[in-house]
Amino acid sequence: MPNPSKLALITATVLIMQTAAEARPLVQSMSCAAATAMVDQAGSIVMDTSPTTFERFVSGQAFCAYELVAEPAFTSTSDLTDCPIGFICQPRNENRSRTQTLQFS
Fold it and tell me: Coil, strand, or helix at residue 85?
């Protein structure tokens, strides 16, 4: 027979994990304005982008680690397929330049 205290700990862990997963807002059920406002208000928030995927959205560079850069993020909401919800933090690309220099031969 399983140890009752071990069984209780496992049950509590599963319930906590389930509650945490349910706590993420589902972007697809929100309007673009509501989702964008939520990101702006929180600064950084993890949201479900579908029933099986999630993403961390931020309101700007201040919410990304130093080695990351804030890139514009678009996702589907209840009213738009490409809602400009905010930003996601991506690794810096050393080959990318914010300003392109044209060279003529």
Answer: strand
